[in-house]
Amino acid sequence: MSRDIFFNGTNLNTITNFEVTHIYANVTPSIELAKSRYGFADGSAIQKHSYDNKIITVKGRTIGDRNKFDVARAELEALFYNQLGKKLQYEDNSELVDYTATLNSLNFAEPQGGHSEVV
């Protein structure tokens, strides 16, 4: 059973065919470095949200049919558009999706007892 992981009050683990496993901040601007650092298991994906030289990484995996990842990605895009009021640009590179937006702040938190980060 997946944990609840929230983005601005929205549970990311309600997204169809996608389970968010963790979310954290780092300062790695390179897609290639992210690939080498985190690697990819079959059916996994990383979404990186970049602003002010910081990257918020949402790491998760698709559930079930790998071909359904496009549906999960579309739902993630809609969620971030609705939450931020911005259309996020992305660059699809195999299983890596790189989202870039100009943001002042993002708040990520899990329910009590989980891990929380405020960026």
Could you describe the 3D structure shown?
The protein is an alpha+beta fold. The chain has one domain. The protein is 20% helix and 39% strand. It contains 2 helices and 9 strands; from the N terminus they run βββαββαββββ. The protein has helices at residues 31-38, 69-84, and strands spanning 6-7, 10-11, 18-26, 44-51, 54-62, 89-93, 96-100, 107-109, 116-118. The protein has a 5-stranded mixed beta sheet with strand order 3-5-4-7-6. Strands 2-1-8-9 form a 4-stranded antiparallel beta sheet, with no helix packed on it. The protein is flat and about 30 Å long. The model is unreliable at 26-34, 36-55 and 86-119 (pLDDT under 50).
Counting DSSP H or I runs of 4 or more residues, the number of helices is 2
Form type: flat
Domains (count): 1
How far apart the termini lie comes to: 27 Å
User: SSE order, as H and E?
Assistant: EEEHEEHEEEE
- Average pLDDT number: 50
The total strand number stands at 9
Overall radius of gyration = 13 Å
Q: What fraction of residues sit in β-strands?
A: 35-45%
Largest sheet, strands/sense/barrel? 5 strands, mixed
Spatial arrangement of strands, main beta sheet: 3-5-4-7-6
Helix/strand-derived class? alpha+beta
Low-confidence stretches: 26-34, 36-55, 86-119
**Helical content, roughly?**
10-25%
